[in-house]
Amino acid sequence: MSGFQRYLFRNVFRTLLAIVGGLALIALLTQGLASDRLGLIVENRQSTVVYLWVSMLATPQIISLLMPIALFIATAAALNASHRDNEIVVSQASGMSNWQVASPVLRLATLAAIVHLGLNLWVQPAASRELRQTVSEASTDLASSLVREGMFMTHGGGLTTFAGKVTGAEITFLVANDSRDPTNEATYIAKAAFVSEVEGKPTLILRDGQRQTIRANGALEALTFQQSPLELSAFVSDQKAVILEESDRFLPELFFPDMNNYYDARNAEAFQAEGHARMAAPLLNIAMAMLAIYAVLGGDFNRRGYAKRIAMASAGAVLLRLMAFQMTASAADDSELNALQYILPIFVVALISFFYFVLPILQRRRVSVKYSLDDLGRLNSPKAT
């Protein structure tokens, strides 16, 4: 690349990094505050580290969604600044063709498409799978879901708990009332307790306490124990089986689901649409870059700027992204529409390439042929003779 091309490449690349970083940060903050992930801290008493880890795992998917639009904005902003400073005009006056001016942006768009493809095929499903597992483990944390430090908690099925202090899975001073059987209601008071698993069932192990019951005659019966188990399977839902949705699956799992599995068989077309969307979405980077290039460089020079053309191209970019989403949704109901996910960005690239690269060459050749014919006509005219 020439010096100007490297300069233009750096400008677009720096702008792209700033936009992707800024938009991803805003999306993460908005998603984290608006969704139930904040409940991992508030309701389940998970640490801030868990919340940050969950937010970081959502980053690849957010970047994949934002990258094409961010590339369009970065390209339009960098090219508009260069055009406004007459750098594009000078480069074209020095003999650079439309392709030579646009090639740094298209190279960056190609690199962005490759990175986007890598995110879609490997990074995003791995992060999404880990995200779902982390959220599931946090939401099914027995110690955090059954007790609250210094609070009485009532659970469906007939369990009331009070904890003096909670440190992870360890509980100091626990009161638990089991009223599943009204005729045999029991209250446990223990100096310490911890959550464990006995024979595959979640169990609360009580230490150094008493089990108090009321006899039929109204007398209080107290049984002292050093260690006693309290089975919890009746009070908690078993959510260990995590269902892998479209975003959690790698490409082979999307194209070749287990048809013996009811969930996979029911969503086979949706899985295929998601797989094709992951491979087709990187092409949007090149289409968006072409839209931005044509918006700034595709018309006549204007000292007042190209706000109108850029606004129209921005509307086209948003429409293109929405159409891509719509085609993915439509293909989830009809797998024959998956081809449209590739046709749309390729058509946009081909159309703009014709108007920006091919048409000017044809026009110059037509003008050259016209002048050649005019010169030949003047030479053959009687006056010339």
Verbal overview:
By secondary structure, this protein is an alpha+beta fold. The chain folds into two domains: 3-139 and 243-375, no CATH class; 145-231, no CATH class. The chain is built from 13 helices and six strands. Strands 1-2-3-4-5-6 form a six-stranded antiparallel beta sheet. A hairpin with a 2-residue loop joins strand 2 (159-167) and strand 3 (170-178). The protein starts with a helix and ends in a 5-residue tail after the last helix. The relative contact order is 0.10.
Q: Which class of secondary structure composition applies to the elements?
A: alpha+beta
Radius of gyration: 33 Å
Quote the beta fraction. 15-25%
User: What strand order characterises the main sheet?
Assistant: 1-2-3-4-5-6
Number of helices: 13
Q: How far do the termini sit from each other?
A: 51 Å
Helix content: 55-70%
> What characteristic shape results from the CA principal axes?
elongated
Q: Could you tell me the mean pLDDT?
A: 83
Major sheet: size, sense and barrel closure?
6 strands, antiparallel
Low-confidence region ranges? none
The run of helices and strands is: HHHHHHHEEEEEEHHHHHH
Write the layout of secondary structure elements.
Elements: H1 3-34, H2 39-42, H3 48-57, H4 59-84, H5 87-93, H6 98-139, H7 142-146, E1 152-155, E2 159-167, E3 170-178, E4 186-198, E5 201-214, E6 220-231, H8 251-255, H9 262-266, H10 268-280, H11 283-297, H12 307-331, H13 339-380
Antiparallel strand pairs: 1-2, 2-3, 3-4, 4-5, 5-6
Helix pairs in contact: 1-4, 1-6, 3-6, 4-6, 4-11, 4-12, 6-11, 10-12, 10-13, 11-12, 11-13, 12-13
